[in-house]
Design brief:
heterotrimer, A alpha/beta, B alpha/beta, C mainly alpha, B: alpha/beta, eight-stranded mixed sheet, disordered N terminus, disordered C terminus, C: mainly alpha, MetI-like fold, 2 domains, two-stranded antiparallel ribbon
């Protein structure tokens, strides 16, 4: 797996190399029950041509992050703070109308369920052409030609014959290809794929991931791939952000994080999924308990209610002091109070043998 | 498909008669009728000649893409729908053509768990009512009363018995699946058909439920038919695995053989598509991509139903061999002891998961299988 | 598509047939329950005592002594035209669609209905346009911002409108605009063909009062559909494309939100044709509703039968149009 050496984490947003830089992003939703802190202080960087994986379980804030980057929360009651630098421009203060010019042309997104994400009453071709014509002053005929070209590029056989089909006439894989064609028709610099293969069969998933990688190479776009499947990350991504309770708990290059994960939550994720490539374990090692409420986030470490290793920290710091996301190796950051040497020792001795 | 003499894929059948024996079961749904007086369209062959056997305490995994007929097979076994033809013997008794009334005493022996724990639980009933409903329906009077029995069950599946009077929406996804399991367990069944029981759950919770299912199996000697599309979970939980495509079994064998020495090109493609959470392994693996869409089950291809998407047919076979695939339908038969494969040109490949043929490890039965597998890499058994 | 239409059409014929059997059955049953001969209801005149030879002759003349299936067959074929005579006055030619002769009103039933239906149709179509436009507009704006001031005002208004019956709103409107302000002429129907402006003026208040209730229902329906639709994934996709808000709401939102309304509208409209009694009474419009209530009062069975069948046909046609329309709007409906 190709992997570029990540730049130091303290790189500024205006660094020419950086293409997307999210700084201390917070997305809070006021509700009757209290303030839901869906994303709470998230930072990451992305360069062109890179694929960044954001992993986490439901409620970890990964989808909310994606929608915040696209500005889909604008106009709602969500409170958003921090910075989202895209090519040197901060997207957070933009109005919904200003953001409209960015959506689809500079940032595009594909979603989990391609059937419900396509309008049932319009043809595939109409919906893709519409995305092109919003941002390009072209005739209907030109848009249609471009649409067919895109459908061919994403591997729809007999594209001219199928451009007038309705979404329900496509198979699940075809629909996701059509969504990708729609997302890429304006050649966006950033593609956000939110669980793009979760609703698909594993054979189709392989095709779609392959397609995303090919298109990344061709267009030199940056890609954010949101998933709950660590296998998909290992297969597709260059960098990974592990999210839990609205926070990043570990991030780094895919090679580093899979070779030597240091956050107990990452260990938990790896341990709870059965693996085909290892000797079959008699029992899986689930993470005990349930994810935290995002209204009453635990004081101290957000993972402390489910962590088996808090006794490896002096005193009760896991329950009193919120750990910082600190570098443990170049480009590898971990949010955990356990000393780095102790974490590595624990992983080698207790975790790795059981994976 | 013709029925093989012994249950397919059972190398050394465990002693005793099988708990469940399915022979050449078909489920064809009527095609859409065209017009008021129009002719019926072709029937949809959702399940088209499936045979297997299952012993007490054993788990059979059913895998395949959506639309392959695995869920329909599960429903036919649980007699939620009637098979079109074929034989289903449960504890030696033919149940395929039993009426609903005749099935009632057997219902307590065969239970089902569904994918979506929420939609299968009545939102207006309390957990106590839901878990206790099998007792009431069957008119059973457990010792100490229904409430005590239900609370015992709740405790056993890891729910707090004090939550007896709560409603399904007050529980998380994983807890709801535990409720479904408790309900299925109430009448001490012999067999539970699990239809995608963990697919809707987060990984960490999924592991909790998988562990629970395994514990219950050991405790009560349950047999499972475990239907799932996640091949890693199926490997973890199953003793034997059947791979289905277009209503037919492509390959059925014991778990280790299937994952370490699969023979059917479809099994190869399926296994190669599962991403593995290890970038180093991922980098060296070959991904066998299937092209095209699933053919319609109402109009399956001639000859081998898989030939239209078969990578081997496409890339490796000669014209004469292809002719055979197109015209002659293969039979699910033992290509190696205990490994039944529906393919004219079945061939062992052991590099699918690791990206390279593994070095022998020394662990009992796995060793034996590896040796058999190692003897044949790259050589056609055919 | 053509086969789909043919199948639906066949179904339509079947429904009308069943309705005709049922109404004919009532025709037979009503005299039976009151222990009289159908001829009393049929002619409306009781010139002869029961059992008299003259009555027997009359019964024979109208065929009420024949077996019921034969009578039904004659009723059915009679619709396509027949000659009616009571033996005393000159025979009357009754062309298609012939529902017989009203001896109480001394006219062909088809003529009575023919005079009445333009009134009812004017009323229904005008009201329908009003309630559709009003209801959908209020519902859309409410549904786009649930909980906002617009939404609360709209829904409070709708609640009030639903709770106001026509026999209240009608007279109040009349009192205000006709008798107090004098902006509009009095009640009664002015045919569209003779005086379009007069027609409009005469129908305006009936339209408004009839549309009121329906507009309220449609506003609530549109609102809930709109809220649901704007939460759909494809609306998120439309936003992600960078579409402007108007395109998102109108092209992607409304199109989907209004589809179920088409179905309900067809049924409502079809039902309305036979049930505008109150509005017609309040505004003194001689439409189908007025005709039917009058014939019920007079026990004028031929007219009741005629109106029933016309109302049934209207409902069935409305349903048929909805089905076809639905298949055109929603490509997922298989035809």
């Amino acid at each position: 797996m190709a992997s570029t050496t990540p730049a130091p984490a303290v790189a500024t947003a205006r660094d020419a190399e950086l293409f997307l830089s999210v700084e201390d992003l917070k997305v809070h939703f006021p509700t009757e029950d209290g303030l839901v802190k869906s994303v709470d202080g998230l930072s990451f960087e992305l360069r062109r041509g890179e694929i960044l994986g954001i992993v986490g379980e439901s409620g970890s804030g990964k989808s909310v992050t994606a929608q915040a980057i696209l500005g889909l929360h604008k106009g709602s009651r969500a409170r958003i703070s921090g910075h989202i630098w895209l090519d040197g421009r901060d997207l957070v203060p933009l109005s919904d109308e200003e953001m409209r010019g960015v959506r689809g042309s500079e940032i595009a997104m594909i979603f989990q369920d391609p059937l419900s994400s396509l309008h049932p009453f319009y043809t595939i071709g109409d919906q893709i052409a519409e995305a092109y014509r919003v941002h390009n002053k072209v005739s209907a005929r030109e848009a249609r030609a471009r649409t067919i070209e895109m459908l061919e590029k994403v591997g729809i056989p007999n594209a001219p014959g199928r451009v007038d089909d309705y979404p329900h006439q496509f198979s699940g894989g075809m629909r996701q290809r059509a969504m990708i064609a729609m997302a890429l028709i304006c050649q966006p610099k950033l593609l956000i794929a939110d669980e793009p293969t979760t609703a698909l069969d594993v054979t189709v998933q392989a095709q779609i991931l392959e397609l995303i990688k090919d298109l990344r190479d061709e267009l030199n776009s940056a890609v954010i791939l949101i998933t709950h499947d660590l296998g998909v990350v290992a297969e597709t991504c260059d960098h990974v952000v592990v999210m839990y309770g609205g926070q990043c708990v570990e991030k780094g290059s895919v090679d580093d994080v899979f070779e030597l994960p240091e956050m107990p939550y990452t260990w938990g994720l790896l341990g709870s999924m059965p693996r085909m490539d290892r000797v079959r374990q008699e029992r899986l090692t689930p993470i005990p308990g349930q994810p935290p409420s995002l209204i009453n986030v635990p004081t101290g470490c957000v993972f402390n209610t489910r962590c088996r290793f808090s006794d490896h920290v002096e005193g009760r710091r896991c329950f009193t002091e919120h750990p910082q996301l600190l570098p443990t190796a170049p480009g590898h950051e971990v949010r955990c109070h356990i000393e780095p040497e102790e974490r590595r020792r624990l992983f080698e001795l207790e975790i790795k043998p059981k994976l | 498909m013709t029925t093989t003499s012994a249950a397919p894929g059972a190398a050394t059948p465990p002693a005793g008669a099988p708990l469940l024996e399915v022979r050449d079961v078909r489920k064809h749904f009527p095609g859409r009728s065209a017009g008021l007086f129009g002719r019926r369209g072709n029937p949809v062959k959702a399940v088209d000649g499936v045979s297997f056997a299952l012993h007490q305490g054993e788990t059979l995994g059913l895998v395949g893409e959506s639309g392959c007929g695995k869920s329909t097979t599960g429903r036919v076994i649980a007699k939620l729908i009637e098979p079109t033809s074929g034989s289903i013997r449960f504890q030696g008794k033919e149940i395929a053509d039993l009426s609903t009334g005749q099935m009632r005493p057997l219902r307590r022996e065969v239970q089902m768990i569904f994918q979506d724990p929420y939609s299968s639980l009545n939102p207006r009933h309390t957990i106590g009512t839901i878990v206790g409903s099998p007792f009431r329906i069957q008119g059973a009077h457990p010792e100490g009363g229904i409430k005590k029995a239900v609370q015992g069950l709740m405790e056993r599946v890891g729910l707090n018995p004090e939550h007896y009077n709560r409603y399904p929406h007050e529980f998380s996804g994983g807890q709801r699946q535990r409720i479904g399991i408790a309900r299925a367990l109430a009448l001490r069944p012999q067999l539970i058909v699990c239809d995608e029981p963990v697919s809707a759950l987060d990984v960490s919770v999924q592991a909790q439920v998988v562990n629970l299912l395994e514990d219950l199996q050991n405790e009560f000697g349950l047999a499972y038919v475990f239907i799932a599309h996640d091949l890693s979970v199926v490997r973890h939980i199953s003793d034997r695995v059947a791979v289905m495509y277009l209503g037919k079994i492509m390959e059925i064998t014991d778990r280790d053989t299937l994952y370490e020495a699969p023979m059917h090109p479809y099994t190869h493609a399926l296994l190669s598509a599962v991403p593995i959470p290890d970038p180093t392994v991922e980098a060296r693996r070959e991904r066998i991509l299937l092209t095209g869409d699933l053919p319609s089950p109402s109009n399956p291809p001639s000859g081998c139903v898989f030939h239209t998407r078969c990578p081997k047919y496409r890339d490796q076979l000669s014209d004469g061999e292809r002719e055979r695939c197109r015209t002659e339908e293969p039979v699910l038969e033992d290509k190696r002891p205990g490994q039944s494969v529906y393919c004219h040109f079945a061939e062992v490949r052991s590099d699918i998961i690791d990206g390279e043929a593994p070095a022998p490890r020394s662990t009992g039965i796995r060793e034996v299988i590896r040796k058999t597998a190692a003897g044949a890499p790259g050589t056609g058994i055919e | 598509m053509i086969r789909f239409i043919l199948v639906r059409f066949a179904g339509m014929i079947l429904v009308v047939f069943i309705v005709s059997v049922l109404t004919f059955g009532i025709f037979q049953l009503a005299p039976l329950l009151s222990h009289t001969s159908p001829v009393y209801y049929y002619t409306g005149k009781v010139p002869y005592p029961p059992g008299s030879p003259q009555l027997q002759a009359l019964i024979h003349r109208f065929g009420f002594d024949q077996p019921i299936p034969v009578q039904y067959w004659q009723f059915l074929t009679g619709i396509f035209g027949k000659t009616i005579t009571d033996g005393t006055s000159a025979p009357v030619q009754c062309p298609f669609p012939c529902f017989g002769y009203s001896f109480r009103q001394n006219d062909l039933v088809s003529t009575l209905i023919g005079n009445a239906w333009p009134v009812t149709l004017s009323l229904c179509i005008g009201a329908a346009i009003l309630w559709l436009v009003g209801g959908v507009l209020v519902g859309t704006f409410s549904g786009l911002k649930p909980g906002s001031f617009v939404d609360r005002a709209g829904m409070t208004g709708a609640l009030a409108a639903v709770s106001l019956p026509i026999f209240f709103t009608g007279p109040v409107l009349l009192l205000l605009f006709v008798y107090t302000l004098g902006w509009l002429p009095g009640t009664g129907y002015v045919p569209l063909t003779t005086d379009p402006l007069g027609w409009f003026e005469s129908m305006l208040l009936p339209w408004v009062s009839l549309a009121f209730i329906f507009a309220a229902l449609y506003a609530r329906l549109t609102r809930s559909n709109m809220i649901e639709t704007m939460g759909e994934d494809y609306i998120r996709t439309a936003r992600a494309k960078g579409l402007d808000r108007r395109t998102i709401v109108v092209k992607h939102g409304l199109r989907a939100a209004l589809t179920p309304i088409v179905t309900i509208f067809g049924i409502d409209f079809g039902t309305l044709i036979g049930s505008t009694v109150i509005t017609e009474s309040v505004f003194n419009l001689r439409g189908l509703g007025y005709l039917s209530i009058q014939s019920v009062r007079q026990q004028d069975l031929p007219v009741i039968l005629g109106v029933t069948i016309v109302a049934a046909v209207a409902l069935v046609i409305a349903n048929f149009i909805v089905d076809v329309l639905y298949a055109v709007i929603d490509p997922r409906v298989t035809v």
